[in-house]
Amino acid sequence: MHPTPATTTGALRPVTSRNHLYPVLLCLVLLLPLGARAAATDVAGVPLADHYSVDGTSLVLNGAGIRSKFFIHIYVGALYLPETSKSAASILAAPGPYSMQMYMLYKRVDADKIRNGWTEGFRANVDGDGFAALEDRLRQFNRLFTDLKKGDVVRMDYAPGKGTSIRINGQPRGTVPGRDFALALLRVWIGEHPADDDLKRGLLGG
């Protein structure tokens, strides 16, 4: 028979249940700045928020990785979607918004290399007729980029009906219209011929 509190004798001992710590810990978390609570993922020293908003729609971090070339880290890439998916085909078939973000790690990448990289990525992942339809807008997109250096942040946000808006270090650079352009741009990273296979796996949450 187990003793009840009424039959137990001796000095009372302080209650040390961990449950009493939960309200205190919750208060401490709530006192943290929002950015500190949101940044739960770290890639190569770059903190990435779990959530991001495009045109009023809340997106979640689908995945992230490092773009490397000849064993040199160029940037951290992060992909935000309305809901997570490990399927490139499903992502490219979805009509919703997305945000593709680049956090520069390399000391400096000049504008010509950036523009050539975009053009090569489009050519590799879009067929001839499709590329011809995008060519003028690709030139418009390329003109939005200047040299990028370590610490720069590029955000490419697609909002259906509005287009793909580019911000560099928080400053608006311009918007390129068309869902076809937005999907072609996304194929540069998660298409059949991505710029970096390891980065593709990371963006797909692999």
Would you report the number of β strands? Answer: 11
Write out the strand line-up for the largest beta sheet, numbering strands in chain order.
Answer: 3-4-5-6-9-10-11
The separation of the N and C termini measures: 55 Å
β-strand percent reads 25-35%
CATH fold node name: Chalcone isomerase
* Average of the residue pLDDT scores: 87
Describe the largest sheet.
7 strands, antiparallel
Helix percent band: 25-40%
Q: What are the low-pLDDT stretches, counting only 5+ consecutive residues below 50?
A: 1-18, 21-39
**Helix and strand pattern:** HHEEEEEHEEHHEEEEHH
Overall spatial form: globular
Task: Using the CA coordinates, give the radius of gyration.
Answer: 24 Å
What is the CATH architecture annotation?
A: 3-Layer(bba) Sandwich
Count of DSSP-assigned helices: 7
CATH class: Alpha Beta
Total domain modules? 1
Strand-pairing-aware structural class: alpha+beta
Condensed summary:
This protein has helices at 22-31, 34-38, 88-93, 111-125, 128-143, 179-190, 197-203; strands at 39-43, 46-49, 51-54, 57-69, 72-81, 98-104, 108-109, 148-149, 153-159, 163-168, 171-176. The chain has 206 residues and is α+β, with helices and mostly antiparallel strands.
